[in-house]
Design brief:
It comes from Microcaecilia unicolor. Its main location: other. InterPro entries: WD40/YVTN_repeat-like_dom_sf, WD40_PAC1, WD40_repeat_CS, WD40_repeat_dom_sf, WD40_rpt, WDFY1/WDFY2, Znf_FYVE, Znf_FYVE-rel. The chain is mostly beta strands. The chain folds into two domains: 301 residues, YVTN repeat-like/Quinoprotein amine dehydrogenase (Methylamine Dehydrogenase, Chain H, 7 Propeller), CATH 2.130.10; 81 residues, Zinc/RING finger domain, C3HC4 (zinc finger) (Herpes Virus-1, 2-Layer Sandwich), CATH 3.30.40. Helices cover 4% and strands 47% of the residues. It contains three helices and 32 strands. A four-stranded antiparallel β-sheet has the order 1-32-31-30, with no helix packed on it. It has a four-stranded antiparallel β-sheet with strand order 2-3-4-5, with no helix packed on it. The chain is globular and about 80 Å long.
């Protein structure tokens, strides 16, 4: 039975099941309704819409609600509660009727002074946690609607993840930094900050089972942070040509699904031994041929040579000149799915089998700014600035599982 827990077809592609069009502006969030053939969408056109799948297979709007400000993000809970973040900083709570044909207003939370970027609802703590472009995270009581606490950052807070058991919050910001906070009833404490990206953090995903944090950035890369121990191990994943806008880790099959602004959908095999990318070494001269770099005035004068530009081998991290790093190679075990600069000795050490890809690449054929997965059904929904919402069958890519009941359609 253990051998049947999961299977991963390597050559299959996501199947586009349906396209939803109708919004007049960019769709900022789209969520699959658990256990229902339905989708909730939010848009810059100030509308919240609930789409239900009809017998014809098409999705038709059963709820159409206009907000006072452009909608920036969404959160949904199985109790049929919807939290809608807006451009004006407010978050509005609604309850959907049992037949999904009506949405009743519950309360407004004055959570931020600027655009809301992410919302998480914790039933255990009775908190509504959110981040915004006012450079803050806030947590509010869902019973009274009152503010419990707030923490400020130096940059726009762009994304949020939360550990429900330990009440730790992970906040990514536009400076490229991730902050780990411990939230209390009326206070918070800073645990640590994670720095590794060269661009703003666009998305986060927290896996509480393996205690892994995944971050996607405008630098086109993903970093896996091992929060659970192992001496702070980090893995770099480079397999997108544009900024990474959404990530989702499937713990059962050890796969990471990521989407980028150019429509790229990448599925990473994380169930394999990977190598951590090295720290880049600094030197005043090439660590292979010992020729000086252009700032090494003394050695240039002593040897009567012109200084060279410094580069770095992505495999060993050595500081090398262009002549000693003239070749390029992919190295998927270190996360480099595309060809990168390596020094000549590292290039010679990479075998052909070392270049075998550990990811599959697919084309969503539309701008993707947000993604949501229902792992139990193998469904994914994507949306973006092109105003199109797409619903995908991902079971051909992420496999089928006895444990969750997936079956290929």
């Amino acid at each position: 039975m253990a051998a049947e827990i999961h299977s991963r077809p390597q050559s299959s592609r996501p199947v586009l099941l349906s396209k939803i069009e109708g919004h007049q502006d960019a769709v900022t969030a789209a969520l699959l309704i658990p256990k229902e053939d339905g989708v909730i969408t939010a848009s810059e056109d100030r509308t919240i819409r609930v789409w239900l799948k009809r017998d014809s297979g098409q999705y038709w709007p059963s709820i159409y609600h206009t907000m006072s400000s452009p909608c920036s993000t969404l959160a949904y809970h199985d109790s049929k509660l919807i939290f809608v973040g807006q451009d004006n900083g407010a978050i509005m709570e609604f309850r959907i009727a049992e037949d999904f044909n009506k949405m009743n207003f519950v309360k407004t939370y004055p959570a931020h002074q600027n655009r809301v970027s992410a919302i998480i609802f914790s039933t255990e703590a009775e908190w509504m946690i959110s981040t915004g472009h006012d450079k803050s995270i806030s947590w509010m009581c869902t019973q009274s609607g009152s503010m419990l606490g707030r923490y400020y950052f130096t940059s726009w807070a762009s994304c949020l993840q939360y550990d429900y058991d330990t009440q730790h919050a992970f906040v990514g910001d536009y400076s490229g930094q991730i902050t780990l906070l411990k939230l209390e009833q009326s206070s918070s404490s800073l645990i640590t900050t994670l720095k590794g990206h060269e661009g703003s953090i666009a998305c986060l995903w927290w896996d509480p089972v393996q205690r892994l944090l995944f971050s996607g950035s405008s630098d086109n890369s993903i970093i896996m942070w091992d929060i659970g121990g192992r001496k702070g191990r980090t893995l770099l994943l480079q397999g997108h040509h544009d900024k990474v806008q959404a990530v989702c880790y499937i713990q059962l099959t050890r796969q990471l699904v990521s989407c980028s602004a150019d429509g790229g959908i990448t599925v990473w095999n994380m169930d394999t031994n990977r190598e951590e990318a090295p720290q880049w070494l600094e030197s005043d001269s090439c660590q292979t041929c010992e020729q000086p770099f252009f700032w090494n005035i003394k050695q240039m004068w002593d040897t009567k040579t012109l200084g060279l530009r410094q580069h770095h081998c992505r495999k060993c991290g050595k500081a090398v000149c262009g002549k000693c790093s003239s070749k390029r190679s992919s190295y998927p075990v270190m996360g480099f799915e595309f060809q990168v600069r390596v020094c000549d000795s590292c290039y010679d050490s990479i075998k052909d089998e070392d270049r075998s890809s550990l990811a599959t690449f697919h084309e969503g054929k539309h701008n993707i700014s947000s993604m949501c997965m229902d792992v139990s059904r193998g469904l994914m929904v994507t949306c973006g600035s092109d105003r199109v919402v797409k619903i995908w069958d991902m079971t051909p890519v992420i496999g089928c599982s006895i444990a969750t009941g997936f079956s290929p359609r």
